[in-house]
Amino acid sequence: MTSLLPVAEALARILAAIPGPVAAETVPVAQGAGRTLAADLGATRTQPPFPASAMDGYAVRAADLAAIPARLRLVGTSAAGHGHAGTIAPGEAVRIFTGAPVPEGADAILIQENAEADGDTVIAREPVAAGRFLRRAGLDFSQGQVLLRAGDTLEARRLALAAAAGHAELPVRRRPRVAVIATGDELVRPGATPAWDQIVASNGLALAALATEAGAEAIDFGIAADDRGALREAVGRARAAETDLLVTLGGASVGDHDLVQAALRDEGLELGFWRVALRPGKPLMHGRLGGMTVIGLPGNPVSSIVCGLLFVVPAIRALLGDPGAGADRSEPALLGRDLPENDGRQDYLRAHLETAPDRLPVAHPENRQDSSMLAVLGTSEALLIRPPHAPAARAGEPCRILRLDRRIV
Questions:
Q1: Which pLDDT score, from 0 to 100, does residue 332 have?
Q2: H-type helices in 269-361, by residue range?
Q3: Which residues lie closer than 8 Å to 278 by C-beta, 6 or more apart?
Q4: Contact at 8 Å (CB) between 122 and 112?
Q5: CA–CA distance from 268 to each of 16, 54, 206, 255, 294 (Å)?
Q6: Where are the beta strands (DSSP E) in 112-229?
Q7: 151 CB contacts (<8 Å, ≥6 apart)?
Q8: Domains in the chain, ordered, with CATH?
Q9: Pair 245, 295: CB distance under 8 Å
């Protein structure tokens, strides 16, 4: 019997077989949300480009406020976008607003709560230290400073930084093309009426969604019948679409109706491995077909989604050039109930979490863990990870979880 591959080794093999990041392209910054940078991004400008006020008040010379109360002559106004072009001489002040340029000669901001205006005179009621409420030029970033790195995903905060740094266009990786093929005579598309011996296909949608969330272009090739010719035809369409990653669902085992591996071999598959020591998801297959990476997932809905999180998402991130594609995304937690010792497979138990601000989350594994039960996965918040041969554990002991309610990249 073929030995089962450990989860970590299976992932390492998949990532090692990725030929490299997909090609780069340039997109307008307004279209950069969710894309992955193909190159480091430096600032084209300095922010702020001038000393700026952090408060509403008066730009002053701190030395003029050594004796309180101090009377200063008001010589102008500086507002955001309408700075005061002149300089401040001893005994002078400029009315200033948050974000506005600080006039030359001023070295502090007297906040308006500590001042009183009387015509062209400002009366300071409190002293102010030099540099107070003043943002120096370049406080945020300086021209030429590297702000974002290749492989970073452009979330809202990073997109804002790229725009503020002066970039109208961004170098990003094109979206990897991920083909999803579900297999099985028992499947019908969502919305169709299944026969008495059929079910609605759901994991194709789930894997396409996972791929999209990870930054790929998902192409759903529908359902292929349990027929070697039909499977070869579907694989051929995926190849014609210049797919980077082919994900098959079901039929990867060796039963009489499990024909995916055979059909792929007919097309020239170079099998990397088959069968991984995890639960759910043991019958997982990996290989290459020409320039296309192939990951064959189990047909059970929960198994396919769990394996998608563990293997498909990192593969997509590697295609995007993410240096953290294979990083451990688990986090510490505490067990919510006693668990027996584990066998030789790594378990991913569906669990709900009990959280509190001052402690680690407590993971309560669901009682029902059958890999066909999608409702349990849909209402769970995390996967509780049990290593192979883990000894019996008691409630309150440490464990590791993989959250299901957080972004995957």
A1: 97
A2: 301-307, 313-319
A3: 7, 284, 306, 307, 310, 345, 346, 347, 348
A4: no
A5: 20, 65, 28, 21, 12
A6: 115-118, 121-124, 134-135, 146-148, 169-173, 177-183, 187-188, 199-200, 217-224
A7: 36, 37, 320, 321, 322, 323, 324
A8: 7-23+174-319 (3.40.980.10), 26-47+146-173 (3.90.105.10), 52-135 (2.170.190.11), 331-403 (2.40.340.10)
A9: yes
Residue type at 169 in one-letter notation: E
Q: What span, in angstroms and rounded, lies between the C-alpha atoms of 262 and 268?
A: 10
Kindly report the backbone phi and psi dihedral angles of residue 302, in degrees, each rounded to the nearest multiple of 5, phi listed first: -65, -45
**pTM for this entry:** 0.89
* DSSP-based three-state secondary structure for 225: coil
Edge-to-edge strand ranges of the sheet holding 121-124: 108-111, 57-60, 92-96, 70-78, 121-124, 115-118
- Angstrom distance (rounded) from CA 303 to CA 297: 8
**pLDDT, tens digit (0-9, with 9 covering 90-100), for 160-199:** 999 999 999 999 999 999 999 999 889 889 889 999 999 8
Order of strands across the sheet with 292-297? 217-224, 177-183, 245-249, 292-297, 285-289, 270-274
Determine how many CB atoms are found less than 10 A away from the CB of residue 320: 26
Sign of CA dihedral 265, 185, 294, 176: positive
- Give the burial class of 249: count Cβ atoms within 10 A of its Cβ; 0-12 exposed, 13-18 middle, 19 or more buried: buried
Structure tokens at 290: 């020409």
Alpha-helical (H) ranges within 309-385 are 313-319, 374-379
Per cent of the chain over pLDDT 70 is 97
Q: Give the Cβ contact number of residue 93 at 10 Å.
A: 28
- Containing 159, the helix (H) or strand (E) segment is helix 156-164
pLDDT at 2 over 70: no
Start-to-end C-alpha separation, the chain: 37
Take residue 320 and report the two structure tokens written for it: 């995007």
CA 386 to chain CA centroid, Å, is: 25
CB 182 within 8 A of CB 249: yes
Structure tokens at 102: 């600080």
Outline where 295-402 has alpha helix (H): 301-307, 313-319, 374-379
Two tokens at 19? 């030929």
